[in-house]
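Per your request, structure below.
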């Protein structure tokens, strides 16, 4: 079986996607805490040694460093035969929601949450703009989940793992009360949390946490 080392920081939803996928597939990984808040990923030394793209997470598979969460989720789904798609139509739908999440939902939520909770001084107008965009994207997802148990139908896939990662963090970080504002998303997050082996991010990703200025 492959051995895994995951370079991460606890607040990283993209790190959580890989940690959760491995855990749900019955695998373990060696956690490698990274001082993202301290700026280590922006140093030339770290980028040369760990990831030239300057991003977290990095997944080492038998010593080979691999990056970019979406293709890694696709690789793991194929490798373990879990949380993937079966038909050509399902494969297209999975990619459609996975790419939408990366470009829209995760793309905006990761930035908004970081600015809102983990930046001491931020621009209220920028936060307002990001919030407005997120409300649009969350409305799209909530509408879809009113008629679908999971992203592409009755079974969870890596599209669900990707979309739920940033949404499951505490509301004092992202500032949304999904039970009140987006009940279908709230119910879907509950279905994801009921999967055998599911664990929250701060349990799967230990280590020093960044200061939450939104509290």
């Amino acid at each position: 079986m492959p051995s895994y080392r995951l370079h991460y920081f606890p607040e990283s939803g993209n790190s959580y996607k890989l940690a959760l996928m491995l855990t749900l597939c019955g695998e373990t990984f060696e956690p490698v805490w990274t001082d993202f808040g301290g700026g280590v990923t922006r140093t030339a030394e770290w980028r040369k040694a760990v990831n030239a793209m300057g991003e977290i997470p990095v997944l080492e598979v038998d010593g080979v460093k691999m990056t970019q969460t979406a293709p890694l989720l696709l690789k793991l789904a194929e490798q373990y035969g879990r949380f993937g798609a079966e038909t050509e139509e399902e494969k297209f739908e999975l990619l459609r929601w996975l790419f939408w999440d990366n470009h829209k939902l995760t793309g905006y939520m990761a930035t908004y949450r970081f600015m809102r909770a983990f930046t001491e001084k931020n621009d209220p107008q920028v936060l307002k703009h990001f919030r407005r965009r997120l409300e649009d994207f969350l409305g799209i997802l909530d509408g879809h989940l009113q008629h679908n148990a999971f992203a592409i139908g009755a079974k969870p896939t890596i599209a669900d793992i990707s979309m739920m990662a940033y949404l499951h963090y505490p509301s004092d970080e992202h500032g949304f009360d999904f039970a009140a504002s987006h009940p279908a998303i709230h119910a879907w997050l509950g279905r994801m949390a009921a999967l055998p082996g599911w664990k929250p991010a701060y349990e799967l990703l230990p280590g020093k946490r960044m200061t939450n200025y939104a509290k």
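The two ends are 42 Å apart (CA to CA).

Regards,
D.
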